[in-house]
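Q: A reviewer asked whether we had any structural model of the full assembly, not just the individual parts. We don't, so I'm hoping you can provide one. Inputs are below.
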Amino acid sequence: MSRPEIAGPASPADPAEVLEQTWRDPPGLWGRLSAVNHKTIAARFLYAAFAFFVLGGILALLMRLQLARPDSRLIGPDLYNQLFTMHGTTMMFLFAVPVMQAIGIWLLPLMLGTRTVAFPRMNAFAFWIFLFGGVMLFAAFLIGMGPDAGWFAYVPLANADYSPGKRIDIWAQMITFTETAALMEAIVIIVTIFKMRAPGMTLDRMPLFAWAMLVTSFIVLFAMPAVMLASTALITDRLVDTHFYDPELGGDALLWQHLFWFFGHPEVYLIFIPPLGVISAIIATFSRRPMVGYRAMVLSLIATGFLSFGLWVHHMFATSLPELGKTFFTAASLMIAIPTAVQIFCWLATLWTGRLVLRTPLLFVLAFFVILLAGGLTGLMLASVSLDTQLHDTYFVVAHLHYVLMGGAVFPLFGAFYYWYPKFTGRMMSEKLGKWQFWLFFTGFNVTFFPMHIVGLEGMPRRVYTYPDGMGWNTINLGATIGAFMIATSVLLFIVNAWRSRRRGALAGADPWGAGTLEWRAASPPPAANFDVLPVVHGRYPLWQPAALPDRVAGIDPGLREVLLTSVTAAEPDHRMLMPSPSPWPFVTALATTVFFVASIFTPWAVVWATLPVAITATLWFWPRRSESEQRHQREVRP
Amino acid sequence: MFRLVLSTVVLPLACLPSGAAAQAVQQSALRPAGVQAATIFSLWNFTLALCAAVFAAIVLALCVALWRAHKAGRAAGASPGLAPDLAPDLASLQQPERRVHRAVLWGTAIATVGLVMLLVADVWTGRMLARLPMNEAVKVELTGHQFWWEVRYPEEGVTTANELHVPVGRPVVVTLKSRDVIHTLWVPNLAGKRDMIPGRTTTIALRADQPGVYRAQCAEFCGLQHALMALPVTAVAPAQFARWTQARGKVAPEPATDSRRLGRDVFVRAACAACHTVAGTMANGTLGPDLTHLASRPTLAAGMLPNDRANLQAWIVDPHRFKLGANMPPSPLPARDMHALLDYLESLE
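A: Here is a predicted structure for the entire assembly that you could use as a starting point for your response.
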């Protein structure tokens, strides 16, 4: 086979064109369902997670309308309880975790200098599972079968005795279901980070965002099984009468809380550790210098991950546990502030010694700084046993957790979106609208949540659908409702900005911010194969540091879905590997799995008969196909 | 939709100073009226001061950092355009920044000291609370139900519901149980909260040091009407408390009028007695609140309605109008029976 010497842009032998053909997803509806490109899947993940964020926000607005004044009869207790359960469930399970993983799936191959993620079909499968699980939950809510025992679903309230009907069954089963998606994504991310980094990108040179995603994925791996176990035990209690949580028959109501919070507390950290990586990227770029204390940052991330498993009991201080045990968990909860302090000081030092360029992404990061700081400090208050007995289950906690989760995740996410939008679409978002959005969001957020600290101390419990007049809570609640609508307006403004900029934004070019990490080397938006030539890395900021030789990987065939695998720590080239091609079977298998999970809510026998379609579709998924064996053959005959 | 916005947002705005009524109801951790709450309040003040100082220091450092970096950026020729055209400063990649690292280390050390201070203060407060004298404590058994409170004074032989009386200056040890789901007793003016967990017995100690009525509310989400599960806690002088327990220890008097006698019969016949107890009669149900001294209670339906004849009647006719999800079934009685029943219930003082 001979190749023409000079290739025009349209010639099939042009490497860029060949790469595009090799890596792009097939056209047509069937092709879309077969897509495995990491950017396609991640973009769908992002859109779905954002849609769930908006839905969760609408639920919150309805709650705030009900609470705007005392003794309101706008929304009855039944609907209100469903609203707050769905709000918590949506934001935690259908927005916060998936959106972080989606950003990881989109960015990591670009940041690490490779063409795809590990296990691209499992990646697609995980997306479909997540989407179907989330849609099922909202479908149930819309037909009046929304869960109503709180997103924490404490037993015995969530037992069959006190929550009859199918509401909690649907909830418990869909939680288990969607969390399998999170587990699979964690595996995809871990393997991608460990095995697919560009040659030369040792662990010590990896972007902090990749470190953050790595730590997060390990937390997912150890925390998610706890909640899946807990919800599976709950559903067997409800459906086939096991007695895990029934104190009268040898079970224990507190077992649920231990299992749930063993997941639930790390959950908070797995929501806000990825943003720590985002922030490090944004601060370095807009301070125009490398991050201070790279290794300290990495160690802090790892320490936060470890410690996050040691403090779940501070959610249970009111349950009457032994004093010494409580002191241990107080100490652990306070200790986790130390790695956070290290990171805060490193960011401060980076800004202090940097040369500032203030743009919208950095604005969100600075707001994160202030808000997370406040949320962290109120967290210290909640970690104290004595204070917690007053603050627990009041609006103080509502304020605290929104400071931590919105400050720790939503603010940086907006920052991340403004920052990476040019890479995503090839165009810049409007700075003017961005600043408007920022100030509206920041103000609305503080108007909504800051006074909640006070109303909590003034005795307002959380999860109440109404409150009597004359308690001194009216003004603050009304204010919070107004603030919530400011937040909603700001999110609308964001949507408008993202929508408009897609067509009208200024063209971005490959590296509009002058950033130093590898994803900015790819074109904006990146082609299907990410890079025309795979880079070799010589430092932490490859785009800032002058390239040494070799600067590119040689010997990868553009006509095959081939990637270079490297060793775990030193990132030395290991071997070349063929990645799987697009396939509709992950989609079909996800459908079959959904049938399995949904049917098992209504009849335990589904566990028997519904394994059949899952087994058949999964077998077809892995059945060796001709085109793939041809690819392999081709690879063997070529040098 | 417009009406909805108008009714929820605009109208309440017009009567903003409604917070002025705050003095009437005492449910606040910021106005302690008992030694436990006061001890926790001191810890709160200390923690708040420390955290506020840390917050101020770090925000100040952030502002200075921004100002410095802004100046450095201007000096290096940063333009206000969209793209930062400033070349990155890579000096730190060549030589380590010892001074900066030392500053980070110092910051972390100071933060650690602050955290240790918080831990010590917390442990110290915990020990203070544990060592409060508990001799001659009044014993109370409190049982949580969906959605009301069963109150027993085992030593005084008093059973009541939805009202807790405590003597000022004497410790009260409350044993907490639950009949159905998890509830939480929380009297913020007197003490922190403690869960009531089915299958377990927990206790909490409190002491009211000033007379008054303090509102407690269930703090753990316990189902449909979690929001409407309140408990007035009345702190009175010890002598008055003794009188109260004595009065509450008595059985219900024999009905004095025909109407009341008929009312008692209705009470037994209309199945009220299946769930409610009136001591001294054949009514000895235990699913609902004990009604022996119903007329002396300030509120109906767990702190929800003022206790008067109209509310009582409305409640009996259709409890779910007020408290959807309450376990009491509606009892539409003929007018004569209803009046007799109300006469009878109003005599239960």
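A: Points you may want to mention in the reply: Chain B touches chain A through 107 residues (CB under 8 Å). The radius of gyration of chain B is 29 Å.
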